[in-house]
């Protein structure tokens, strides 16, 4: 992970290349996960654009106010500082821990995160386009880690809450839950043995589907050109600042507890 240097508009025009910086924020689904694959997918799809995808994931991060609240993490401050064009926010898996879950707290703190991003962008004169992500499904396989998370929250509540929240806040949304198997858990080959984290197959699939959303948002792919995909949340109209499409087409960790002690692993 590092900071990107954005050239002045005049120099960009002289080079004939469009620059797009994407800040990927979230928990272990992000940290060391899909951002690297997203960089590759975008460059394959639109090589005339210079893409800079940065990983601002934090192991064990939550939206809610826990010891691992993302709002307090150093990487979130770094993400705000780079003034990205697009910012993805994929949280919720750790919030579904049996010790932590509260729908009202989750909604309140996700809202606060979005507002902080928007206010920071407005103050700097460059607000990013924000996409909230619905986390991947939880596949219970008898693993200790998976057993500590509320499967009904991840597989039923978050897919309801996050698209609705995105629409209310006027931001974009991407649906990793449906793209990676949905409520019927139809893609076990995309998951690691713990049933929580994505494996290489899952990370690549998430990245490819998210790349389609980014390309549509940037006007580099029309919705009609995109392959049939469940990646869009139900309210596609929530995407902010989408320019008209103009051309071609082309995925650290969770809190666990023993007795009353809560620990994080990565």
Q: What portion of residues is helical?
A: 25-40%
Shape verdict: globular
Main beta sheet strand tally, sense and closure: 5 strands, parallel
- What's the N-to-C terminus distance? 17 Å
Adjacency order of strands in the biggest sheet: 2-1-3-4-5
What is the succession of H and E elements? HEHEHEHEHHEHHEE
**Structural category:** alpha/beta
Unreliable parts: 1-15, 235-266
Beta-strand share of residues: 15-25%
Number of helices: 8
Q: Overall mean pLDDT score?
A: 82
Work out the number of β strands.
Answer: 7
Output the radius of gyration.
18 Å
Report on the architecture of this protein.
The chain is an alpha/beta fold. The chain contains eight helices and seven strands; from the N terminus they run H-E-H-E-H-E-H-E-H-H-E-H-H-E-E. It has helices at about 10-15, 35-45, 75-80, 105-125, 145, 150-170, 175-180, 200-215, and strands at about 20-25, 50-55, 85-90, 130-135, 170-175, 255-260, 260-265. Helix 2 (about 35-45) crosses helix 8 and helix 4 packs parallel to helix 6 (about 150-170). This is SGNH hydrolase-type esterase domain-containing protein.
